[in-house]
Write a structure and sequence with these properties.
two-stranded antiparallel ribbon, alpha/beta, globular, single chain, 5-stranded mixed sheet
């Protein structure tokens, strides 16, 4: 069977904001993870049901756990190479000819050939085609769920004009329990699994809960865009970081360093604001409650009020951009924390 193109010909922009598409390079790595210990470790962290396609990948790749392509990938996982780095490297391939450009040192020509051997030996294009209905359903569901989004203008209020293309790639293989954000050239890519259900039940369809997808894309796009924005405004970051953020010790352990703490607070804050304004206050409240429970973000309501104040004052012309407001952020969060705790 002929291999499919890296980007599905059915990929179409649902609006200027977000492009929803499938990508064979993402599918290649997400399928290859099935032959590693990724799933067993993920299940040990949190027992959860997985998509039927992911279960099929486990069965399909089981005889190839000792293949050299899998061995090298397992070595990277054992060295705690972030998934973002692995997907970023894989997205530099061109399928089906496996031409490469600008790859990291560990991704040797030998491994590329080993990868090609596994790709052909298993006939991954044929398997994806055989289960094309599942992939098409994920694509269609994602397009429906994101069809009314206005992510780009919302984020531009914080980071200025967004010149990158925002890309959403639904993933029904692995990882099953987390999304991945990758910057590649002029694209920001969010690779997102379906929402997990309770216990060992299969995950929900992508369009069952648009709020979950909004949270995922705002988290990934918002973080990548703000990281670049902070880099462009390093002087403002240096000024702001002189004031310690009022976060508890447990939060500091999860997010060491001022910038990581700021990014975690900022992303959670914009997700809550977007959910309240574009989905429902109930969804926003549920998100805030979960963030407080899981990450100890007791000051998140204060962060939300500070970010809303920025949006209001920017609209009134007080700030030309978030960089002007950034040195005020830790001061106002400290004040907001005291007010919220009263």
């Amino acid at each position: 069977m002929q291999a499919t193109q890296s980007v599905q010909p059915s990929s179409t922009p649902i609006q200027p904001d977000i492009v929803v598409r499938l990508d064979d390079r993402v599918r290649l790595l997400s399928t290859l993870l099935a032959a590693t210990d990724w799933n067993s470790k993920a299940q040990a962290r949190h027992l959860h049901g997985i998509h039927t396609h992911a279960r099929g990948a486990l069965k399909l790749l089981a005889p190839y756990r000792d293949h050299d392509a899998v061995r090298v990938l397992q070595e990277r996982l054992d060295k705690n190479t972030p998934l973002e780095a692995l997907f970023s490297a894989m997205l530099r391939l061109r399928l089906p000819d496996f031409e490469v450009q600008g790859l990291p040192g560990w991704m040797t020509p030998e491994w590329i050939e080993q990868l090609r051997d596994l790709y052909q030996r298993v006939d991954l294009p044929g398997w994806w085609q055989k289960d094309s209905a599942s992939w098409q359903a994920a694509l269609d569901q994602s397009k429906r769920a994101l069809s009314d989004s206005c992510i780009r203008p919302f984020l531009e209020a914080f980071v200025g004009d967004i010149r990158e293309t925002l890309v959403f790639v639904p993933n029904i293989a692995f990882p099953t329990d987390q999304e991945v954000g990758v910057r590649l050239g002029r694209e920001l890519i969010a690779i997102v699994p379906p929402r997990l259900a309770w216990g060992d039940s299969p995950p929900w369809p992508f369009d069952d809960d648009a709020a979950t997808l909004y949270r995922a894309v705002l988290t990934q796009f918002g973080r990548m865009l703000m990281v670049a924005y902070l880099h462009r405004h390093a002087d403002k970051v240096a000024e702001a970081s002189k004031i310690v953020l009022p976060v508890p010790e447990a939060f500091q352990q999860l997010f060491p360093g001022w910038q990581e703490q700021f990014l975690a607070l900022f992303v959670a804050g914009i997700v809550a604001i977007y959910l309240e304004d574009h989905v429902s206050p109930a969804e926003a409240n549920a998100f805030v409650l979960m963030e407080r429970k899981v990450y100890g973000m007791a000051l998140l309501p204060g962060v939300i009020s500070v970010l809303r104040r920025y949006l209001t004052e920017r609209q009134a012309g007080r700030y030309s951009g978030f960089a002007d407001f950034l040195p005020m952020f830790p001061k106002q969060v400290r004040v907001a924390r005291r007010i919220v705790s009263l």
